[in-house]
Each structure stands twice: as structure tokens, then as C-alpha cells.
Amino acid sequence: MGIGGFDEDIYGADDWDLFIRLAKQAPVAVSPHHEVYYRIVKGSGSAQVEKIEQGCLKVVNKAFKIAPLELQPLQNKSLGIVYQYLCFRTLEEAAQQSSGLQAIRYFNKSYRCSPELWGFPTLSKFFLRAFIIALLPPKLSRVITIKMRQCFS
Fold this sequence. Notes:
Layout: H1 14-25, H2 49-66, H3 75-93, H4 97-113, H5 120-135, H6 138-152
Helix pairs in contact: 1-2, 2-3, 3-4, 4-5, 5-6
């Protein structure tokens, strides 16, 4: 039985949708290592976080529409993880002060869905970066956040 190809109506998360459909048909293995890396290019589709948000929400809603009853409690955690991802993705470029404010909005959505995702180290790194980006001029915030990434890596 085929699973079909990429769903072109799901922007930026069509691969997640494909993986979910594949996992429904065949056994999968989970790896603790990063096996796939996304190349994010300013101005490309990979940098359009708002569109990616809509695609991710479609995937989560589509998956939980057909998920068994025992998995339904995981929907809020899944949404929390999506918003946490979007939160940190928004902070990656640190292009403008609105990025910090958008990241704070994503944090709020993530925290409301799944507060347990936000332990102290994650929370403190996020707020420090978000406030630096939201409050400081863009050139200065870029320099500081690059130094922070070097320190925390």
C-alpha cells in the first residue's frame, strides 16, 4: 500500500507529514542524533516562519485527527514542541526587534500547551536572547546573540 508523496498544501512541514504517514505503514527506529539538517537561507521559504507555523499546525491537526484515543493526550505536547521550535527559529536570524516579540508570542503559545518543555536552562536562554533582540538595536543584538551562541554551544 502506497503512502503518496509530499502534500503540497502543507508548507514547510510536508516532510513531517510524510514521515508520519510512513510510520503508520512501517516500523520506525528513533535515533538520539540529528540525522537531518535544514539549510535556512534569508529570504527563502525556510525563513518564512509564519508560513511554517501554518504548515506545522496542519500536520499536527491532521495527525491527531486519525490518531488512536490513547495518543490524543499528546496533542498539546506536540503543539508545545512546534511552538518551542518556532520560538527558537524566530530568534535564529535576530534580524529585527520584531523577531524578539514574535518569539515571545511563540513562547506564550508553547508554554500554554506544554509548560514542562520549559525547564530553567531553556527558559533562561530563551528570555535572555528574546529580550536582547527585542530591546537592543539590531546590529548590537546580532553581535551579542552570536557571542551567546558561541558561549552556550
